[in-house]
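Recall the central idea of this unit: under ordinary conditions, the amino acid sequence of a chain determines the structure it adopts. In this exercise we apply that idea directly, starting from the sequence alone.
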Amino acid sequence: MKVSKTHFKAIHILLIACMLTACSSLKNRKIEKNLTERLNLNGFDNHFTGFMVYAPESQDTLMALNAHKFFTPASNTKIFTLYTALKILGDSIPSLRYYALKDTVYFQGTGYPGSLHPAFNDSSIVQFLQSFQNLVYVPANFPEGRFGPGWAWEDFDSAFSPERSSLPLYGNVLTYIRHSEPEVVPEYFTDSISTVALPGRRLEHKNTFYFNPGGRDSLTVPFKTGIKLTADLLEIAIKKPITIKEQFPEGKKTLLYGNTPADSLYKQLMEESDNFIAEQLLLTSSAALTDTLSSRLARDFVLDTYLSELEDHPRWVDGSGLSRYNLFTPASMIHVLEKLYKEFGTDRILTIFPAGGKEGTLEDWYGTTGGPYVFAKSGTLGNTYCLSGYMITSSGRFLLFSFMNNHFMESSSQLKPRIEVILEAMRDSY
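Accordingly, the structure predicted from this sequence is:
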């Protein structure tokens, strides 16, 4: 059979493409073998490790080690929380649900975390409520408890573990600032500070706090939330009395939106690994969907809709990752990382994620003198360290990775240098 010049040229191009693909695959196999050897040589063989590297432009999985095994993710859970908030809340986050009737306003919380928060100073709900003569607080339907399932309850007085609530104020924490005359924020608790030493910084079921008068550092301690306390704190801020009632009058309710830019909350969530903001964003997402504030409702909605195609259905029980009940796979992390950057843009997502060597929990790790090459979320619990996010390689490739480690016996500070070696090898190899 005679082959035309056109057909011959097409076959020639196809053969070259196959040869290039084969060379590329061979190179990737060599890199994968090299990285696997590094994992074994660098002490990753005595605990449970999952590692997946994915090139989204070519849709190639470059490496997969236990990629579909389930791990305790710690704060890598916040990657799913961020996706939930971006999909449901977007750029406008509601702070109150209200019904106005002449000079009276009935209002309830939406779980919005920014109100009077020390990092944001968002007083928008105070300014709004001050414009009414009569204020009626209607507590929201919040069926879940102050803590998430599987949390360490003994951490009740730790700064990283504020209680969840439907109308949080001041980040649900007391801040004790040491001056010649100590400052207490909110001032409401000034008379609640004990001069008698307690077992911790606060009584578990009462807002009685203890700060060592000889200490040097300012401290942040969660306070015990409650409906009456919320009304009291607002009364002081607004300088008007507040009545508490169980329900709204008949009529259409309206949403008030907070003044804190959404991306400021999302950046605080990821960069500082803020557990309080994580939990409250799920509650606010739920409030945007229904009249009920339920973390579970928001999680189930996202898994059933936006993430219904997930191959490895996770066990997802909170927004922060404080719970050891959470179980995710590296492949699931990669799936959501890909959706984040495709749906919201690389520039925005890399701004929200911590940059290696520069910011937040990655400030001391995964950086270079030439600038960050890793943009990722870390997750740390006892015997657990996970890191999932994005990498820009030396050749300019954009990669997604998830590196999950469970059940190691050393400290995470001993593990991180070995992880850094692997990530540097990835950066310089691809």
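The longest strand covers residues 384-392.
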